Amino acid sequence: MVEVIGSIWLEAYKEFFKFYHLSIAIQVNNLLHLFSMNSSVVKAILFCIFSGVYLCSRVEAINLSKNVAVSAVFAFGGSSVDQGNNNYIETFGKANFPPYGKDFLGGIPTGRFSNGRTIADIFAKALGVKEYLPAYLDPSLQYEDLLSGVSFASGGCGYDNITARITSAIPLSIQLDYFKQYIWELKRNIGEEGAQKLITNSIFLVVASTNDLLISLPIRRILHNDIPAYVNLLVKLALDFVQEIYELGARKIAIFGAPPIGCFPAVRTIAGGELRRCKKEENEAAQLFNNILEQKLKVQSLLHSRVAFVDFYNPLISIIENPNKYGIW
C-alpha cells in the first residue's frame, strides 16, 4: 500500500521538486544571504545557535577545556545542508543548474540548494573551521579537506525512510554508513586516538524533518496516521539518530527544529488562497514537532555530551511576519 501511494506521489513530486527546493532557497537561503548584509540579524540568530550548543547543554558537560577550538563540522540531513552530494547520485533532486549558486563563487551552481552559502557554510565559517563545508561525495575532495569536516546530507532526505525513497535521496542510514567510512579513513591516517579527539571536538549539525512534514505526512495521513502520531514517530526517529551518532563519538550536536513550512512560497502559492497566506496546518505540525523534540532532548540521557535544540521556526517566522524589524524591506 505504501509503495503504491508512494509511486503516485512520486510522479507529482517530480514536477513539484524543483519549484519546492527553489522556494526553500528563496525562503531560507536567500534570507541567509540577506543576513550577510545585515549583521544584526546574523549575529542574533548565530548567537542563539551557538549559545544552544555551548551553554544550554546537559548538566554533564564534556571534559574539555572551554577554550578548545572546534576541530571540524559535520552535517547530516536534507537540502539545507546538502553541499552537493546529490550531484553524484541518481536523483531528480539536484541543484547544479541556475539560478542556484548565482551569489556563490563565480555565480556557478555547486549543488547547494541555495543562491549562495548554506547553513553549513555559515556555521563552519563562524566557528573558524573553514570557509566552505564540502560534500563528502565530491570526487575532488582531498584528505586535508576531511580533517575539518564534510557534509553527508542529501537534498530530499528526512528522518522517515519513506521520504528518501520518494525523493531518491540518500537516507540517513546511508549517511551514517558514509560517516563510518570517514571514521575508518581518519583512524587509518591519524590513528585511533587522534580520530577520537577530532570527532569529540567537532560540531554535528542535524537538519532534517522538513521533507517529512511536507512530503511524507500527506501519505501517512492517507494511511490513517494522524498528525500527532506521525510527529511522534518523527521525534522518535530523530532521537534514535542522535543516539547513533553519539555512539560513533559525537559529543556536540546541534539538532535543528522544523521551519515554518506553511510559509514556504510553494505552499503559499498552492494552498494559501488568493492572498498567498501561510498555511496554518503545516505550521502547526512543525510547531508540534519542535515542541515535542525539544522536550525529549532535554531528558535524553547522553553522558558527557552537549545536545542542543536549535529553534529554526521562531527566528524565520519573525522575519517573515516583521521584515521591517530586521531591515530587510
Automatic annotation (TrEMBL):
<comment type="similarity">
    <text>Belongs to the 'GDSL' lipolytic enzyme family.</text>
</comment>
<protein>
    <recommendedName>
        <fullName>GDSL esterase/lipase</fullName>
    </recommendedName>
</protein>
<dbReference type="InterPro" id="IPR036514">
    <property type="entry name" value="SGNH_hydro_sf"/>
</dbReference>
<dbReference type="InterPro" id="IPR035669">
    <property type="entry name" value="SGNH_plant_lipase-like"/>
</dbReference>
<dbReference type="Pfam" id="PF00657">
    <property type="entry name" value="Lipase_GDSL"/>
</dbReference>
<dbReference type="InterPro" id="IPR050592">
    <property type="entry name" value="GDSL_lipolytic_enzyme"/>
</dbReference>
<dbReference type="InterPro" id="IPR001087">
    <property type="entry name" value="GDSL"/>
</dbReference>
<dbReference type="GO" id="GO:0016788">
    <property type="term" value="F:hydrolase activity, acting on ester bonds"/>
</dbReference>
